[in-house]
Design a protein that fits this description.
Blueprint: H1 4-9, E1 16-18, E2 28-33, E3 40-46, E4 51-57, E5 98-99, E6 111-112, E7 116-119, E8 141-147, E9 151-157, E10 168-175, E11 177-182, E12 194-195, E13 200-207, E14 247-248, E15 260-261, E16 265-268, E17 290-296, E18 300-301, E19 303-306, E20 317-324
Antiparallel strand pairs: 1-11, 2-10, 3-9, 4-8, 4-10, 5-6, 7-9, 11-20, 12-18, 13-17, 13-20, 14-15, 16-19
Length: about 325
């Protein structure tokens, strides 16, 4: 490409998305019985730095008696959503994120509090994952986005004793789908997963690239290029770079100054009928060149393209991760 004005003006040319291996589409189901103090472990190893969606669902009781209802303490449900086998299951007032019955004054139900803990580092550390979700009285289901630590997921209930508990939790682990975009290619490829209509998804883009046929000249206003792409294009000479998925950080033409929010990365959620760059208010990320976008599915695979022509003078790959929203 000959100049930045062409980058913003032209809408031809596409990036190739190399589809992720089949395992990225798989999910694993794990069950935790609140009557057991033993951690439950996934068979899946959560790859280092890789985002996963962990969904916890169910109701339970951690007391040795039925919960008494009250206008402030909350209304228990008559039995666990998923009963513990082989025992008498009592009424319930707990789910993975809230106490919704049996709350002690002066607090009121539903109260955000949980004894369910996760470990992502082989059991060295344990914590309940952060959430801002509202109380889900209908499904008692909550999603948590976690980052893998090259270990299996472990889940436990932090309660003593556990022998008077009743109720199980269903845990579903979903890894993000990975796509690699080579800026030198012009063929669109969809994600393997279909983004369901009305459902939230989080798409993360990371990488740096050059869309010009020459090295970028640094300048105090035009910006400082980096010496090479974060993820180099294979089989070619990679030049210095001044672009990431959200900003031009080097090679900006006056009177503008770097970093300049501008991107030719476009996504389609409706089977290629419409295309646009997803909205973002993120600041320039000079350290990681990584940005996350919240999208809503339209019953079609995600498609991504790059509005630039020609593409054969570009260099650099962009990594894309697609994950159901928490």
């Amino acid at each position: 490409m000959r100049g930045f004005s062409q980058l913003t003006a032209r809408c031809a040319g596409l990036w190739v998305l190399a589809a992720a291996p089949a395992w990225a589409q798989q999910q694993e189901e794990v069950w935790l019985d609140t009557r057991s103090a033993a951690p439950m472990m996934s068979q899946m190893v959560l790859k280092q730095g890789w985002p996963h969606l962990v969904t916890l669902q169910g109701t339970f009781n951690v007391w040795g008696n039925n919960i008494v209802p009250g206008p402030q303490s909350g209304q228990p449900e008559p039995a666990p959503m998923f009963p513990s086998p082989g025992v008498t299951n009592r009424n319930v007032g707990f789910d993975p994120e809230f106490v919704f019955a049996g709350v002690k004054p002066p607090a009121t139900a539903p109260l955000r509090a949980s004894s369910i803990q996760l470990s992502l580092d082989g059991g060295k550390t344990w914590a309940h994952p952060a959430s801002t979700a509202d109380f889900n009285a209908a499904e008692h289901k909550y999603g948590y986005e976690v980052t893998g630590g090259e270990s299996a997921l472990q889940v436990r209930i932090a309660d003593k004793p556990v022998t008077d508990n009743s109720g199980r939790l269903k845990i579903v682990v979903v890894p993000a789908e990975e796509l690699w975009l080579n800026t030198r290619s012009a063929a669109p490829v969809p994600s393997k997963q279909v983004l369901q209509k009305g459902k939230p998804y989080r798409v993360t883009m990371q990488g740096t690239f050059n869309v010009w046929g020459n090295n970028i000249v640094p300048g105090p206003q035009s910006g400082q290029p980096e010496p090479a792409p974060m993820f180099p294009s294979p089989g070619v000479t990679n030049r210095n770079v001044g672009f990431d998925p959200e900003f031009v950080f080097a090679g900006v033409k006056p009177p503008a100054a770097a970093p300049l929010r501008a991107s030719s990365v476009q996504v389609s959620l409706d089977g290629g009928k419409t295309w646009k760059h997803p909205a973002s208010t993120a600041d320039f990320n000079a350290a990681e060149h990584k940005y996350t976008y919240d999208l809503t599915g339209e019953d079609a695979p995600l498609q991504v393209r790059f509005a630039d022509a020609p593409v054969n003078d570009n260099s650099g790959l962009v990594r894309i991760l697609v994950l159901p929203g928490a």
